[in-house]
Every structure is written in C-alpha cells, then in structure tokens.
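Minutes, project huddle
Topic: does the predicted pose make sense with pyridoxal-5'-phosphate bound?
PN asked that the exact inputs be recorded in the minutes so nobody has to dig through chat later. Recorded below.
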Amino acid sequence: MSYFRRDIDELVGYTPGEQPQAGKFIKLNTNENPYPPSPAVARAISATLERGLSRYPDPLATAFRQRAGEVLGVDPDGILCGNGSDEILTLVTRAFVGERELLRLPYPSYILYKTLAQIQGARSEEVHFAADWSLSDDFLRPADGLRLALLPNPNSPSGTIIRPQRVLELAERLPCPLLVDEAYVDFAETNCLALVSASDNILVSRSLSKSYALAGLRFGFLVAQPQVIAGLRKVKDSYNCDALSIAGATAAIDASAWLAENRARILATRVRLTAGLRALGFAVVESQANFVWATHDGRSARTLYEQLKQNHVLVRYMDYAGWGDGLRISVGTDDQIDACLALLKTMV
Ligand SMILES: *Cc1c(COP(=O)(O)O)cnc(C)c1O
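Predicted holo structure (tokens), as shared on screen:
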C-alpha cells in the first residue's frame, strides 16, 4: 500500500540535465551561461550577508520589482518574483489548473510542463509544432476544461521563436490565459513583454538563470496585469525568495551593460557553433537562444552524445517520443565550442 496520492504514484519525476559533481566536464547540456555574472551581484550579496540574516526577507521582493520595473518599463505591481522561473510555472499551474482540468503545451518543448500538470492531478495536451516550428491554430482551439496554455518562447529544444504578433493572436483567441515562458528571450530579437498591457490573457515569465549567469541563485519572475499578480500572491509561500537572492537579482537586473556585452558574446559564439556543426553535416535549426538543436542524417544522436561524454564534453541528448531525437548543445565559450566541434569532427 502507498501513502501517496495516485497521481504522485503514477508520476515519473522530471529529470533535469546532468550536473556532474566530479570530474572535469565541458558542460554544454543545461544552457547555463559560461561567463561569470556582473561583479555587482556578489557585492550586493556580501553586503546583505554583512547586515545579517536574522530577519525574514521582504515577502514581495519590492527592491527587485522596483528596479526591474524601471529597467523593463513595467508596473512593479505587475511583477511576481519566484525561486527560479520554475517556481513561477508551478505557482501559475497551481492557481489556474484544477484536478482533471487541462493544460495545453506545444510539442516538443520544455518537459517540465507535463510534470507540473501531473503533480496537479490535471491533464495535459500536446499540440505539435509544424515542421517549420510555427504553431497552427490547433493551439488555440477550445477544449473541455482548458485552463492554461504554456508557450516557451524561444522554444527549447529548437531555439525558435513565435513572433509577438502571432502570440497576441493566439492569446486573444484562446479561451484561457497564455503563459509565455521567456527563459531565453534575452538572446532573441523580439519579446512579448509589451503584450502584457494589451491583454490580461498574457503572462510572461523570465529567468535570471541563463542570460544573467545566475542559475545557482534561483531567481525568476512573472510579468502580468496587477490583478493577475494579486491573485497569484495568495498562492505563493510567504517567503519564497530569500534575502540573498533578492539582493543578487536586484543588482543583476540593474546591470544592463553587462547583459548587453554577455549577449553579444553568446550570439557571436552561436554563429560559430551553428556554422561549425553545419560544416560537419549536421542539420541545425537557426536559434534565437543560447543553445542549438542539431541532428545528423548519418549518425545516431545517442551515440554521439555518449562519445562526447566519454571525452568529458556533456551535451543534452533528447529523445521525444513520436517525434525524434537529437542533440541540444549550449553555447559555451569559443574555446569550449571549438573543443566540442573538434571532437565531433572525429566522430562523423
Ligand atoms: C531553464 C528554463 C526554465 C527555468 O529557469 P529557472 O529560472 O532556472 O527555474 C524555464 N523554462 C525553460 C524553457 C527553461 O529552459
């Protein structure tokens, strides 16, 4: 006999990308930033530490919301902070999708979404991307119990983006809110932040893990209309962000010049990675993120992944049931990418 809810017993838990604790790996598997964050982040964390941690943190992370509001041009009352944007996704799912209700997501995309529905005892429905990674009107058709649609934009694993005009159209015709997961948007040409004031159906989540090089800090946030944020605040833990992460995140969002410089470097290396893989016979999707999706007609993606791993280069092998497999390779430093390409050259 099990003490767990049936939904939990039946759940195969989400497995994040490998984080090897031993051995020296070139890590190109979880889309972390290869460069250190702005030095202002460590200074802000140290200053907070010196003041001490005996008090509870600000439950609403007001300092961050004010700074982010100015930097991004949004209303601070329209921002909800979370322990990583994964927590934001959990909170929104918990608040909107009841037991046996329906969550819609595109396929293939971020695997975690389906797990969130399962934890909730809810159903999920996958709508396949078209061959060119666009989304057909199937994504917006009504369905019984449909309560939330999630759209990673840029998408993972493809790195492709749905243009804001089309996102607005999807949101306006969907009978439920649309959460646009912009974890990678700082590496893209467009974003959907301006749509939030146009439609109370649109929620935009952001992460400091990738573009701000702070995956270890655990900080993400949601932008939506203030009445939506007010509702979500009722669902979150009182102190979901700790004092050190709030201080670090506030310094990070303020460091616009650092972000621009980091972005430029990653984008330049993305060009190099894409060209290098294509020269080796890979099909590579044009990416708007800090990773690329690569497949090879003549070689098994799983074998390439394993051979790279034996040589201490970690990439992400993804196998999507009913769709296909491939390699998702994060944009590291030029040296890391050159090492990866040199190894692949001996394998294909
Ligand atoms: C990495 C990632 C996240 C999670 O980011 P955290 O802020 O680290 O929780 C969310 N969505 C997508 C699509 C991601 O790839």
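Observations noted during the meeting:
- Residues 6-36+257-345 form a domain with the Aspartate Aminotransferase, domain 1 fold (CATH 3.90.1150.10).
- The chain has a mean pLDDT of 96.
No decisions taken; revisit at the next huddle.
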